[in-house]
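Hey, can you fold this one?
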Amino acid sequence: MTDGLIDLARADTVSGEDAERREALADSLERFIENKARLSAEHPLRYLFWESTLRCNLACRHCGSDCLRDNSTRDRELAPEAIKHQLADIARRYDPRSITFAIIGGEPLIRTDIDEVGAFAAGLGYSWGVTTNAMLLDARRLASLKASGLSTIAVSLDGLEEEHDALRQHKGAFRKVSEVIVRLVADPFYHAFDVICCVSSLNIDSLPAFVDYLADLGVPQVRFTPVFSRGRAGRKSGLMLSGEQYRQLLTFIALSRQRRDDIIVTLSEEGYWGPTWECRIRDGMHYCGSGTVIASILHDGGITGCPSVSRRFTEGSVRDKDFLELWDAGFGRFRQDRRATAPDSCQVCDHWDLCEGGGFHLFDPEDPAIVNCGLRKIGEMGECHG
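Sure. Predicted structure:
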């Protein structure tokens, strides 16, 4: 079954130069689908997350990991030597220069030993980075990370002052993070730096002013990711976007990418949005590499695809087996069995080849009947049989 977008590209209603462009588009899409199948078969690791902790210094309303402001999970965290062992083992198989090693949480800066792990990773040749709420990123800690070879940094800022402080449930958080951003812009030692903004019903209407604010600070890029139902950001949280608000977000991102040259605005890898929006809201087509090119070592040693997928999709633990053994022998549901793992409505959908369920993190094994279909949300499903 081919995606409707390919059929549309090959429609016989046009001729001449336009027909040639459409044929070229159809060929490009078919190569894209073939490449996804190749990656699924070969699963070359390209991005490794380490969820260093579930502890956090905040209690955000939209936290998908349901992180805790206490030490109840500390005794389950992996020691630095355990992660170093896995990094060294992986570097004997893969060229570490082709892999990004990302340290996340919880709030990773709660752990003082991630600098040690980062320095070890850099010594092996990995490019490594952190994603942080920036509340603990003072000048001294930044200097330590810099000395450890930090090459990428993503800072979470979820709108202007009122919205960010409300979502983070911490008055003054916005101003604190803004100070850190100013410090980062003034000292561009890193290879890449951007701001990640979780879009919810609280901040959807203030995004234009928010992007203006970031551009004025000198931020090079902002990534928007819609909130999804996981952890504290459940369906009854009041934070979920409506279909109209999703369209508002997509329109805003597409127009910002078209009109702005002072800041890069993009949609994070979040779902498939069909022919009207794909390639207008980010640099390329939607592709979920979870379990094919992306893997995560969780705080307790569990192994899975991207860190946002359900914890019911873990493939084992590095406490029992080395990562590469699990990576090679497991992950069937992320690769050849992905369609069987998706919601029932995906099984006969014409958009599957390009969509593949919109992202593995949207699959809910606790309630497989739930459909998180982007095209249905925005009313652009078309004549799909699904």
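The first helix runs from residue 4 to 9. Let me know if you want another pass with a different chain boundary.
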